[in-house]
Amino acid sequence: MFEDDQDIKAIRDGIKALCLKFPNEYWREKDRTRTYPVEFVKMLSEHGYLGCLIPEEYGGSGLTLRAAAVILEEIHRSGGNGAACHAQMYIMGTLLRHGSEEQKKRYLPGIAEGKLRLQAFGVTEPSSGTDTLALKTTARKDGDSYIINGQKVWTSRAEHSDLMLLLARTAKREDVEKRTDGLSVFIVDMRDALENGLTIRPIRTMLNHATTEVFFDELCVPQENLIGEEGKGFRYIIDGMNAERILIASECIGDSRWFIKKAVDYANERIVFERQIGKNQGIQFPIAQAHAATEAAALMTEKATLMYEAGKRPGAEANMAKLLASEASWKAAEACLQTHGGYGFAEEYDVERKYRETRLYQIAPISTNLILSYIAEHVLGLPRSY
Ligand SMILES: Cc1cc2nc3c(=O)[nH]c(=O)nc-3n(C[C@H](O)[C@H](O)[C@H](O)COP(=O)(O)OP(=O)(O)OC[C@H]3O[C@@H](n4cnc5c(N)ncnc54)[C@H](O)[C@@H]3O)c2cc1C
Asked: Which of 34, 359, 367, 385 has most ligand 1 atoms within 8 Å of CB, for mutation?
């Protein structure tokens, strides 16, 4: 139904070829040692893939969201993981849409060239969790600067980024008319900030994700780093959510297609009771189910992407795409592990690594429950549950 056009096909083929240089052994080693895939991210930057959403006038390739989605899908389909760098794609929109001309000129060319990394996104806090409006990190105006105090958690890639997009409170909750007002977005230059009020502490997790806790203690951020209008930051962040959901759904679809191919190959090869295990419907059906779920999720993702590119606001479609794709990739992960029997647990098959990786998408960047609440309230007209 949605055929790749020539440009998209070229991007798909290009990224596929580059991913071949980073085989499963590479990702396995990074996972085992919990190290950041510096070489992979460098390669993506050098080929312009990380600056793909930056307009040509600022040195980027000015590609569409669909192109970015295809890049991430293919990385995941190859056995790799785009989490090392995907934030640059989905947080870029906040700077592009709401940043001043001066800010775009200051940052975008460097990001496009790969000299400057915009990989960290500081929203989640320990006490607020999903309830973003309850966040407590403050930004206090002081002359020509803002002074930041507070803490973020799960700030991924903070140690591998030069810049962080930070959401902080500039007005008390009780002092704003609209509950969504009072939060502001800043670009924090972490190169200046480290040991000057910014401390980063890594969190070791069940997958290799370079995630951290970040502490702000009287960190001074110049006023010119405020994005857009003070107090309107929550809307700017929400504005970028549809793109984020579409990109994450694409990663899930890539994972799912990796699991399905891996499961089919193994089911065709493995002989038990003197026949291929793939002859058993108990092995076939879960893989077929996962395939059907993946194709359905891919259609919803395509629909959301087309709407996004037509300038519509595909809130429902982007959320449903992310929900369906994360469920499809989990279904595929389960089928793949089961098909591999005991070997699914051995590191060298990569199934257990991808299994751990794809589980994340039902929690982050938004949990399944919160998407279901969104659909219930905003699509079906049911009362708000929280
Ligand atoms: C590896 C990793 C990387 C991450 N990277 C980043 C990052 O770079 N930047 C960033 O800002 N954040 C990041 N996050 C945070 C992530 O977005 C949050 O973990 C996620 O949004 C869930 O928030 P929480 O963990 O505080 O869960 P909570 O908000 O505490 O929720 C816990 C559980 O309760 C459920 N729940 C809560 N409220 C409701 C409700 N009203 N109805 C039904 N169920 C509900 C949730 O669905 C969830 O299952 C990352 C998280 C992880 C694990």
From this structure: 367
